[in-house]
Amino acid sequence: MLLKCLRKVTANLDIEPMLIHPTKWGYRNNKIMKSTGWVKCIAEIRNNETGEIREFETDEILVIGEKYPSTFIWENGNYACDCNRHLFFKRAKNEETEEDWDFECSHGKYSVNLKTKKDGNVYYREYNL
Ligand SMILES: [Zn+2]
Fold it and tell me: What is the extent of the structural domain holding 54?
């Protein structure tokens, strides 16, 4: 009974067709899942109102074979939002308080450049110095 239900659910997810006929994206997803690592990076977070820039240490996902870590989370993911950027900005100087968690969601209050910690190469840029 349980197995029958599971099979039904799986069929609805369209998993099988993708495995039988892998698309370019199928291979790519496979690659991302199988070979990733973490790279120590520095986010240079700028408070756009005051112009102050703080360095926040972060671990970014690197797909093996790629030159630089994925920027998705900063571009379109959770870290693109000012509420998270505000927390990181405060955290960079150990100034984080409980009120910082109530910071409203918005875009444009903070801008971020990302560089690798090891060689300092800026691989993602939202502002110029
Ligand atoms: Zn938010």
Answer: 36-125
Phi, psi dihedrals of residue 80, rounded to the nearest 5°: -80, -15
Helix (H/G/I), strand (E/B), else coil: 60: strand
Same domain, 26 and 40: no
pLDDT tens per residue across span 25-46: 444 444 444 457 889 999 999 9
Q: Same domain for 14 and 71?
A: no
- The verdict on pTM exceeding 0.85 is no
In sequence order, what E strands does the chain have?
36-47, 53-63, 110-116, 122-125
> How far is Cα 113 from Cα 125, in angstroms, rounded to an integer?
4
Helix, strand, coil shares, percent, the chain, to 5: 40, 25, 35
4 Cα to the center of ligand 1, angstroms: 41
Q: How close is the Cα of 107 to the center of ligand 1, in Å?
A: 8
Please tell me the distance between residue 10's alpha carbon and the centre of ligand 1 in angstroms.
33
